[in-house]
Amino acid sequence: MMGLAGMFAMVQVKDDSVKLDSTYKAVEMMKKAIDERIKNFVDSNSNSLAITYVIGDFIAREYPFEDVERYYNNLTPDVKASYPGQLLKEKMTSLRSINVGGIAPDIDLMAPDGKYVKLSSLRGKYVLLDFWASWCGPCLAEVPNVKAVYEQYKDKGFEIYGVSLDDKKDAWVNAIEKHDLPWIHVSSLKGWECPVAKIYNVTGIPKMYLLDKEGRIVAMDLRGEALKEKVASFFN
Q1: How many Å from the N-terminal Cα to the C-terminal Cα in the chain?
Q2: Mean pLDDT of the chain
Q3: 135 CB contacts (<8 Å, ≥6 apart)?
Q4: Could you give the CA distance from residue 145 to residue 129 in angstroms, rounded to a whole number?
């Protein structure tokens, strides 16, 4: 028979779960409210030159490309024709290339052995472009799943191109060896100042892109079963 202490513990766990669920719902509601306010603010300032900077700097960093594109399309012709509008248009072109449907910008960085490896050298294979770092807990948590996918499809035309945002070579190389990551690894060893990370607008890691044989982005930020299923679809 369960004692009072055990029963109390179960009540506490259930109570904590309820609190956690309530907190999560509250955060979600708050996020939706903030998103709606931002949407209304941007839409109501479509004739403002200043809004181009909000779209290009904040919206482009925090929201999906589809949102950025919609806000840009809603700008008035005068704003689009302005100098800030032209700068935003150029940024849109860059953002389009790093989203689904775009050809992934080429990368040419140094591997641990000192040789440079281009992303474009992998054309003809399906590629997982993975931005990560040795200090990134979520990146390492995804390693077992990524390794399983790699082992299953590496001999069928699948490769992983890992771009590390480490700034110390020892930490980078030690992580590769410790976690037995047998795919291609490159890094600028400049941390968040990595020029490639800036091109790909990487503001958080892990950041993953799936590329087809022509180097076109076909999916982004898949994890777990979703990643397995998408890679499997290339070969089935």
Answers
A1: 53
A2: 89
A3: 166, 171
A4: 15
Q: Give the C-alpha distances (Å, rounded to integers) separating 41 from 35, 50, 59, 75.
A: 10, 12, 12, 13
Taking only the tens place, the pLDDT of each residue in 98-118 is 989 999 999 999 999 999 999
The pLDDT tens digits for 167-176 are: 999 999 999 9
Residue with tokens 């992934």: 104
Q: What is the pTM of this model?
A: 0.73
At residue 130's C-alpha, the angle toward residues 125 and 134, to 5°, is 140
* Pick from 77, 83, 73, 39: nearest CA to 59: 39
Residue with tokens 């609190």: 19
SS (H, E, C) the chain: CCCHHHHHHHHHHHHHHHHHHHHHHHHHHHHHHHHHHHHHHHHCCCCCCHHHHHHHHHHHHHCCHHHHHHHHHCCCHHHHHCHHHHHHHHHHHHHHHCCCCCECCCCEEECCCCCEEEHHHHCCCEEEEEEECCCCHHHHHCHHHHHHHHHHHCCCCEEEEEEECCCCHHHHHHHHHHCCCCCEEEECCCHHHCHHHHHCCCCCCCEEEEECCCCEEEEECCCHHHHHHHHHHHHC
